[in-house]
Design a protein that fits this description.
single chain; 77% helix; 491 residues; 0% strand; mainly alpha
Amino acid sequence: MTYTFLRQLFVVTSAQLAVVTCGGVIGFPSILLQQFKQSDSLIKVDFHTESWIAAVPGMAGVAGIFIPHLMQKYGRKFGFRLISLLMIIGCVIIYFAKSSLVIIIGELFQGVGSKSMTVITFTTLSEMTSPKFRNKTLVLYGIAQVIGITLVHVLGRIFPYKTLCIYLSGPILVAYLLSFIWPESPFWLAYVGKFEESKKSFIWLRGKDEEAQREMNELLNSQRVFLSSRTSSNQSRYSKKSITDIWTNVFRRDFYLPTLHILILISCYYFSGNLTVIVYAINLIEKVTIDGDTAFLGTVFIDIFVLIGNIACPLFLKYFDNKSVLLAGGIGSSIFLIGSSTVSYLQTLGVISNDSLLCLIFLTFCMMFSSFGLYCVPFCLATEIIPLRHRGFLNSLYILFKCTFYFTTIKIAPYLILYLSVHGLLLTYAILLSISLFHVWKYVPETNNKTLQSIELYYINKKEANKNYETEIMDTKTMLPLGITGKDAGE
């Protein structure tokens, strides 16, 4: 175990502390809705207010589309600290809330932070870890998030929601403080032309072995060419020609293809029903078991299986490609969604008893398959396929897609259950998920064990991307040596 691995592990571990809080934020609405229904609750909510409390974090997250631009301008660490502070503020507001309106305001802050956290964390970690560890460290996001969800569901049965706010703010506060020890991302430093600082950060994180040297030289050479071409154009950032160039970028292959793939990849998770079950866990399970205590135990049981699925994900990724794991989890999830829908429908016909646990069992296995294949892998792939030069704008679209799916999925779920029943909702998810999986299988590129530079080549020149690793960027004779010195581009 080398010092460079421990340094990467430190960055990964401290970032995952913030993700624990994000998981708590996802599971928090189910606790709020449950406690507000109690007779002694000081805050009362109706059916429509319940749907807003559950869905508003997704809508609020749309405001986070500006954070990737700030992160692209001021650095990855700046973006991480900003969203951490927003989530802490949200917890404080909810703690002192005395009405449902103030609760929703607190959720707005939490929503901006938690919906941006996926992009910020995945971008930061993908740039600060080696290719052979990258997808394994990224899927730890899912484990940390499920731990947060499970803790909230369990502690919510024991403590009032105000106490949970204190627990939620703890991990992310520690993560915020630890972020001052991190180096800045070497990829971002190279992007802004700070090549000497980029080199120091890269070596601190990755060491000086041959593989690290090759990737660092690929990065520095690529960004030198990019910055040189951008400078030689002598265009003002705010000139009409620059605006025309921005519009032209929309029709570039390395822009519109990643955009489409990001949209489809994100839809895989939300169409799996995973989020709907987590947010409406207790209420949804009550409908298929007709028992409050069974609903609580079923929720905890599902959380445990979701955690098992997320723990299994890195193990599967050790032996299989990213797309293989995603497709396997997605197909399994679709099968059990159809099974759950069928059982629920037979319950409405009286063929199966209303208090049968069969639907809960099918739903549990659906969540497990979704967790190891769809909970984190689609978001990892979506992050890895974004070219460095488009990360500001495409990360904003990433957040916009994520928030739109979150809000619409959670907001309309109670109405779909009301008008289509549980079986109609689950069958709809199964159909939409199957369509998304077909697109992923057919068109989305594999990213496992590939450098970020080589993934970019897929969109620029597909034939080059399929060449041997040693020759896919440039001949090693043209690379800059590791010990080269020079001034930053900005000096």
